[in-house]
Amino acid sequence: MRRIGVLTSGGDAPGMNAAIRAVVRKSIYHGVEPMGIRRGFSGLIANEIIPLGLGSVADIIHRGGTILRTARSAEFMTPEGPPIAVENLQTAGIDGVVILGGDGSFRGALKLAELGIKVVGVPASIDNDIPCTDYSIGFDTAVNTVIDAINKIRDTATSHERIFIIEVMGHRSGYIALDAGLAGGAESILIPEVPYDLEEIAAKLRRGQARGKLHSILVVAEGAVNVFELGNQIREMTEMDTRVTILGHIQRGGPPTAMDRLLASRMAAHAVDLLRQGDTRKMVGMKAGQIETWDLDSILHSRKQPNRDIMELASILAI
Ligand code: F6P
Question: Residue of the nearest CA to atom 13 in ligand 1?
Answer without folding.
Answer: 11
